[in-house]
Amino acid sequence: MKNKSTALILSIILGELGVDRFYLGYTGLGVLKLITLGGFGIWWIIDIIKIATDKLPAADGTELV
Q1: Pairing with 36, which of 11, 14, 16, 63 sits 20 to 30 Å away (CA)?
Q2: 37, 46, 58, 47: which is closest to 10 by C-alpha?
Q3: How far is CA 55 from CA 35, 36, 46, in A?
Q4: H/E stretch holding 48
Q5: How far is it, in rounded angstroms, from Cα 19 to Cα 23?
Q6: pLDDT digits (tens, 9 = 90+) for 9-65
Q7: What sign does the CA torsion over 23, 24, 27, 32 have?
Q8: Burial of 33 (0-12, 13-18, 19+ CB in 10 A)
Q9: Is the model's pTM score more than 0.85?
Q10: CB–CB of 14/24 below 8 Å?
Q11: Rounded Cα–Cα distance for residues 50 and 63 (Å)
């Protein structure tokens, strides 16, 4: 199980490097986010909102705790 607080902190601090996506198990998307520097900032903001509102589960489908 992945922790929502950890995912949110990683997304806020290191989200532009894709660390949040790597933590949640989305390796391919993490690499893409790393290469584009958070989707030029847009994808980074969207991920923060999705994690904060429980719209982004872990890659295995489990909800964040």
Answers
A1: 63
A2: 47
A3: 24, 22, 10
A4: helix 42-52
A5: 6
A6: 999 999 999 999 999 999 999 999 999 999 999 999 999 999 999 999 999 999 999
A7: negative
A8: buried
A9: yes
A10: no
A11: 12
Rounded to an integer, what distance in angstroms lies between the CA atom of residue 15 and that of residue 21?
Answer: 8
Please give the C-alpha separations between residue 63 and each of 39, 41, 52, 57, in angstroms, as whole numbers: 24, 25, 12, 5
State the Cα–Cα distance between residues 6 and 12, nearest whole angstrom. Answer: 10
Handedness of CA 22, 25, 28, 33 (dihedral sign): negative
For the chain, helix (H) and strand (E) counts, in that order, are 5, 0
